[in-house]
Task: inverse folding
């Protein structure tokens, strides 16, 4: 993907007219109350637009429209091949609008626009194509039943799926949930995070243009308690697909229990260990990967935020990680050379800074630690590293969700496993070693949904992604994603 200049992105930003209305039944509409909230760019604090502030009435309306579309079969009963064609068209449309989408994402939540444009969004187009292509290649089963009986085992669409997503990768998270759900034939209601509604609304525009019938896909912008909670508690929603914090994820389990026992799939927080053994082949490459903890301003659930280094290489390795981390100096997200943009908003920035203060009290600050003002915004934070962290420290236990790395040290393999597993989370873990047997032993011992050996945080549409323990239960991506949006049905036929 070619590099666009700062001037180019700045000019394009002034020309944009982002959508701000809710999308229900194929139309952009005001919230039922007429209320709208101010959506601001965290990198400048400037107003981007007013966004519909939906509530219970909008939720009820969207659920009834989605249910009616599902029952009418306008999408749910179309053949998998027809749904595939529509979703492949959607992938082309996302590709067509890549510049606009990258810019909307950057203005909404502060990420570097060129990174979104060159890497994240082109990858995302492949996700859409992959889910689209999969849906007419999945076969059902026939059980080995007694002679004269046929036992069919089919997976059918669940019905109405509500997807509630966070702000760190707004369109990625929306696509990971909504596209497999749609491919499987469901109706979908998407609630984007209040900080980042713009690409969800643009997605609605493209989904309609691709040919998904009215009412099948709906977007309700607004706040968690006003939109997420009524969706969670709704008696006519069949499935909740949530990505966000562990705290809110637990609420979704209780929404399900309090209402209709709807399926509740959770992708929640993380505090992923990255273990570096003395026998690592290429320490420099490992250090460069370890410094990626600052990628996306550190606002990544699966980021390797606990660096656990064997004593023999600890000091030399730490020096290398510090050197590589300096590349993530905060800058204007519209500058194509910027690798780290602004935090999502002032509130989150304050929360990350309060963790940095706790870190200063319990460990040694070896890089960064400061809030930075760029232009008219104070929402930037330097890449920050603490050494001398021990497993009991707050900054070794709690998810910070910012550019903050906690470095611990160990002597034996058993100690490394103990430290790595000493967490309420279990999303991702990395191990660097040249010893194949050790790599397998570690992979078996680490309690994480994904273990990466000699790399960090690899993600692909072909491979399941999700957590153990309080990082969640479901799996996004791969054919396993369809298990969340379909239910098993058995049919006995006697002949
Ligand atoms: P969050 O939990 O605050 O919000 C996520 C979504 O839930 C938002 O749309 C929000 O409006 C909604 N919400 C908030 N309160 C609610 C309530 N009471 N009832 C219903 N809905 C409510 O998370 P966030 O701050 O947007 O995102 C950061 C978190 O997301 C981090 O913990 C991060 O680890 C996690 N995350 C996890 C994954 C993963 O795949 N495991 C991926 C990205 C982010």
Result:
């Amino acid at each position: 993907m070619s590099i666009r200049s700062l001037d180019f992105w700045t000019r394009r930003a002034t020309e944009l007219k982002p959508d701000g209305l809710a999308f229900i039944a194929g139309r952009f509409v005001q919230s039922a109350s007429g209320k709208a909230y101010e959506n601001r760019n965290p990198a400048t604090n400037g107003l981007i637009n007013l966004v519909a502030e939906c509530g219970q009435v909008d939720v009820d309306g969207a659920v009834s429209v989605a249910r009616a579309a599902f029952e009418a079969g306008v999408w749910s009963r179309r053949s998998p091949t027809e749904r595939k064609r529509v979703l492949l068209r959607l992938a082309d449309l996302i590709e067509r609008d890549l510049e606009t989408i990258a810019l909307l994402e950057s203005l909404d939540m502060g990420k570097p626009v060129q990174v979104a444009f060159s890497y994240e969004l082109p990858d995302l187009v492949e996700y859409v194509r992959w889910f689209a292509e999969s849906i007419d290649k999945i076969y059902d089963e026939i059980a080995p039943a007694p002679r004269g009986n046929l036992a069919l085992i089919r997976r059918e669409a669940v019905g109405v799926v509500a997807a509630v997503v966070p702000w760190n990768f707004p369109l990625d998270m929306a696509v990971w949930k909504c596209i497999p759900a749609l491919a499987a034939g469901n109706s979908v209601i998407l609630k984007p995070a209040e900080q980042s509604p713009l690409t969800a609304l643009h997605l609605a525009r493209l989904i309609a243009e691709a040919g998904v019938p009215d009412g099948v896909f709906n977007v309700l912008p607004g706040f968690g308690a006003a939109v997420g909670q009524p969706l969670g508690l709704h008696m006519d929603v069949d499935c909740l697909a949530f990505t966000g914090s562990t705290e809110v994820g637990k609420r979704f389990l209780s929404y399900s229990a309090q209402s209709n026992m709807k399926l509740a799939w959770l992708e929640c927080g993380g505090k992923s260990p990255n273990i570096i053994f003395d026998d690592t082949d290429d320490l420099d490459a490992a250090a460069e990967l370890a410094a990626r903890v600052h990628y996306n301003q550190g606002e990544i659930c699966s980021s390797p935020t606990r660096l656990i280094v064997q004593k023999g290489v600890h000091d030399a390795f730490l020096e290398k990680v510090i050197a590589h981390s300096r590349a993530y100096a905060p800058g204007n997200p519209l500058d194509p050379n910027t690798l780290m943009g602004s935090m999502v908003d002032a509130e989150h920035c304050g929360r990350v800074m309060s963790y940095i203060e706790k870190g200063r009290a319990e460990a040694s600050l070896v890089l960064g630690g400061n809030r930075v003002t760029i232009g008219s915004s104070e929402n930037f934070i330097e890449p920050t590293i603490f050494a001398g962290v021990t497993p009991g420290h707050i900054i070794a236990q709690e998810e910070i969700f910012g550019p903050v790395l906690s470095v611990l040290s160990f002597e034996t393999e058993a100690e490394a496993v103990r430290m790595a597993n000493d967490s309420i989370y279990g999303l991702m873990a990395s191990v660097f070693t040249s010893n194949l047997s050790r790599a397998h032993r570690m992979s078996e011992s680490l309690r994480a949904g994904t273990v990466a050996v000699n790399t960090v945080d690899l993600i692909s549409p072909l491979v399941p992604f999700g957590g153990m323990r309080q990082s969640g239960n479901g799996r996004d991506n791969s054919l396993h994603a369809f298990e969340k949006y379909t239910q098993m049905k058995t049919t006995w036929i006697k002949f």
In short: The mean pLDDT is 98. The pocket of nicotinamide-adenine-dinucleotide is lined by residues 164-168, 173, 191, 193-194, 223-225, 228-229, 232, 243-245, 248, 251, 267-270, 301, 399, 401, 427, 467, 471-472 (CB under 6 Å).
